[in-house]
Amino acid sequence: MSFTLARFVLLHSRVCSEAATTTKNNGGLISTLKKRKFTSTAIPRAQNKTSEELLVVVGGGAAGVYGAIRAKTLAPNLNVVVIEKGKPLSKVKISGGGRCNVTNGHCVDNKMLAENYPRGHKELRGAFFNVHGPVDTMSWFSEHGVRLKIEDDGRVFPVSNSSSTIIDCLMSESTHLGVSLQTGKAVITASPTAGGKFLLGIEKRTFSSPEYVEADYLLIASGNSKQGYSLASQLGHSIVDPVPSLFTFKIEDPRLADLSGITFPKVKATLKIENARRNIPQLTQVGPVLVTHWGFSGPAILRLSAWGACVLSSSGYKGTLIVDFTPDVHIEDLKSILTQHKNRFAKQKLSNSYPSEFGLVKRFWIYILGRQGLLGDTLWASISKNSLISLAHMLKHCNFYVTGKSQYKDEFVTAGGVPLSEISMNMMESKIQSHLFFAGEVLNVDGITGGFNFQNAWSGGYIAGTSIGKRAVGA
Ligand SMILES: Cc1cc2nc3c(=O)[nH]c(=O)nc-3n(C[C@H](O)[C@H](O)[C@H](O)COP(=O)(O)OP(=O)(O)OC[C@H]3O[C@@H](n4cnc5c(N)ncnc54)[C@H](O)[C@@H]3O)c2cc1C
């Protein structure tokens, strides 16, 4: 059992009065609560400042709904209204291929966890995950009746393998607490009032004239919507230019299409971008890569796209990808393996026989021969020493020209948004406007694949909800 898992179980059994039963299944731990339990840390009503105060949450996504639930849990008399222009939790629905990768269960400490955020890794190292990290997220969902499992690579999913389980949980908790969820409406304007409130212009899909509402607290959790950035600007915030992150690479090489569908379980890939002003160590990644009909995909490529999102955007998504297809074999060993193979299989054709030590598939071997200008019918005996050395170099430093990006269907996020320097991270409150809070993707935070993006939404929503709830009850 990993450290994280052990902490999850420990914390979980401490929080719940009912006994939790645990079983191993599907390569991960499944926690089953015998009874559904709403843990309410609500402060008694008598202490509430007023029951008239209003929190408006812009956006019914993961961050907004989680934040609303937390605020209403702490301050039951606070009016909490979530305004959602489309369908609530629509990204949760499609996330993780419909399974919802809720968080990541493999990060043993918060500093290590923060390393998974190309934008935010410095700022998230502090209190952010201490207040509400992946273990807290797992506990929260388990306490609210969702059975979770951790897969071998650390990704956490509902045991049901259905994102609807997460949606049902959040929606039923919102209803149970009395959070008002208003759909089909968009918050289009926001301005501070002299009395320290927010005047919000809300437009219904069906009506042309907006209605106006005065809110005591405002939580902007609008994801990557332009309207959300506009609201932040109207309230005095700057916006770091939004650019896509987590995409696959288009590669200029017609012969690569013949390799479509081949997976390399472990390559070392380095992305070089012309005119990149700074050296980004994370632009070298080791991991699986998949050849698609347009180029490269897979975890190592998605990580490169995330770390290179801003520089790639400025370069027009042009760069060079240098791939080491045998990262565990030293170049000198590679040369001697090829020489030994030549001596042993001198009478065999190049295309029919190649060293098994490299773990490469035949289609790819033929591709590499083609790139070296070697014909498959050539016998190993006729290969020159220089050709063997070139083959070894090609396997270690194979260059591909990146000519563009393609959107990855399973996960896609936006880098950029409200800069974290304008946010007090232990409260998720604006440093520019008191009582204004932000959470989720609207901020200049984005993670690599593996559940880190939702974790940012849960943590931010929880911290903002806590700050608002406590202030509403005068704590
Ligand atoms: C296909 C896909 C799959 C993904 N899979 C995963 C995954 O498995 N794991 C993971 O960690 N991450 C995943 N992500 C990323 C994850 O979905 C986001 O990081 C996360 O949804 C961000 O949550 P949020 O609440 O900040 O924003 P959102 O989920 O985008 O919610 C914002 C909401 O605000 C609403 N809104 C915006 N402006 C306004 C306005 N002015 N008025 C009213 N409403 C407004 C929007 O309609 C939206 O519903 C995936 C993303 C995509 C696109």
From TrEMBL:
Residues 55-466 form the RsdA/BaiN/AoA(So)-like Rossmann fold-like domain. Keywords: FAD, Flavoprotein, Signal. Its cofactor is FAD. Residues 243-413 form the RsdA/BaiN/AoA(So)-like insert domain. Residues 1-19 form the signal peptide. It comes from the Eukaryota. NCBIfam families: aminoacetone oxidase family FAD-binding enzyme. This is Uncharacterized protein LOC110752430 isoform X1. It comes from Prunus avium (Cherry).
